[in-house]
Here is the input.
Amino acid sequence: MTTSFFRTALILGLLSAIGPFAIDMYLPALPSIGKDLNAENNVVQMSLLAFFISFAIFQLIYGPLSDMWGRKAPLYMGIGLFAVASVGCALSNDIETLIAFRFLQGIGGAAGMVIPRAIVRDMHTGVQAARLMSLLMLVFSISPILAPLTGSAVISFYGWRGVFWAVTIAAFIGLILLSTQLNETRPKAARVESGLGSAMAAYRLLLGDRNFLTLTFIGGLGISSFLVYLANSPFVLIDHYGLTPTQYSVAFSINAVSFFTVSQLTGWLGDRFGLVRVMRMALTAFSFTMAAMVVVMALGFNQLPVLATFLFIGYGFLGLVIPTTAVLALEDHGEIAGTASALMGTLHFVTAAIAMVIAGLFFDGTALPMAAGIGLCAVAAFILTQATIARRRVVEVEAAAE
Here is the structure.
């Protein structure tokens, strides 16, 4: 692969990671934010949920805008808003203000999530797209590794407000990279037919595409399993298991190492077995691992090393599921890649938000409800995959009979 290929993956990965960086970096601070702003844990978690809600919904706006205006202009808008909202978060003196600015921060961060996937589709399809997507995931996955560790260091010196000043700096770095290192991948000629009417037509087309929706929800359930962990892990690992914020950051980072390391096999495995088969095999292994975790912990083997081992193995398999489902879902929609990527991202995070709310209702401070939420997401993805396989086989048999 050329230097340009790696450079593109690096830039797109960094732009994609700006929003999640604002999540992962402040996770170690959630307990201290509650104490400083005199808020209960479930109210502090609303600052996380507010980000996810706006992050999900506004991808629907950025996708069509990137088809109409090109990829770079909406990125400038989004990352600029993210930077302004980050300053507001840093200056917040009560939990309500923090939640409001987190909502605005999510609006801005949504651009960095949806548009880089569309750029990948602009440039490549098939296995090459899977390679670029997995490299993008490699850079993107550095966020859950470095962000909590960086957050712990920043918090120890500057408190939780320092986290938001740090992500403000990250946003400005993203703007510099966008302006100097990334070329426009959607030429003006391709934008001629793009408008509000075409965006609505594109969404109708996508909502009627069973293959697109199936692959999107499979990936969304996989992401949900990780975000349920993300939302509950600070309280489980720090308050229940007694880890320090730094120890928590290391424990959280280990899962990201597993995820991005295995994801780098996507291109090689896709060449050898095909992307669909790789996705199915990885999803099966992922769901069985997480289901086994729930059973083992329910039987009383709920020590931290047990939980950590299952998560490390399971999220490794998830590293193959996410890029393959994304590439396969976008494969047939190159002309509306921005809109398709937007709907995919929104459905991913709406699914995750619902899973997080449900898991939060059963949270009791111990690890089992969190593990159960993760396991249910994984099993649901497996069931959906199996139902899809069965349906396709029926179609193939009927076609052969004709």
Notes: The chain has two domains: 1-194, 207-401. Residues 2 and 8 are 10 Å apart (CA to CA). The chain has a mean pLDDT of 82.
